[in-house]
Design brief:
Elements (H helix, E strand, L loop, with lengths): L5 H26 L6 H12 L3 E2 H8 L3 H13 L3 E5 L7 E5 L1 H21 L5 H20 L1
Antiparallel strand pairs: 1-3, 2-3
Helix pairs in contact: 1-5, 2-5
């Protein structure tokens, strides 16, 4: 019999939780008629906080590599949710800009995401959630430095 360590269990659980959250969000978006993926939502979410940023900024904020972000932006452009606009200071750089349609998705998607997150954390005390968040942030920082 193979013995699984606590660390392996943690790895498996965090991966499963991420997958379940992504599938749940995708289904919820679909039910609400929102035609985006969870990955596309992460890009839009960055732009809702600060519009007209470079692709590199989106890479840094989403922790995704440049080819993945390029593909996501291409797909969002095809859906008329973003456009690439040349940077006036450096014409080699395109800034990613929300279209009116992309900006209009914010309220509807935020409502869906909040509902899914509230369902996910239902019954978990607030202080436990805060402690869990702190631990996960610490793990992420350790991995980023290491």
């Amino acid at each position: 019999m193979i013995k699984v360590t606590e660390r392996e269990i943690f790895d498996i659980l965090t991966g499963k939780i991420s997958g379940i959250i992504n599938r749940t969000l995708l289904k919820a978006f679909s039910r609400e008629g929102i035609d985006i993926t969870t990955e596309q939502w992460t890009v839009l979410s960055c732009l809702w906080r600060k519009d007209k940023v470079s692709q590199q900024v989106i890479c840094d904020l989403t922790q995704k590599d440049k080819p993945s972000v390029t593909r996501l932006i291409d797909n969002l452009e095809r859906k008329n949710l973003v456009v690439r606009v040349p940077d006036t200071a450096d014409r080699r750089i395109n800034l990613i800009h929300l279209t009116a349609e992309g900006a209009s998705l914010k309220q509807k998607t935020t409502k869906v995401v909040r509902h899914v997150v509230n369902t996910a954390v239902e019954g978990i005390p607030h202080d436990t959630l805060l402690q869990s968040k702190d631990i996960l942030i610490r793990i992420m920082r350790n991995l980023e430095q290491g």
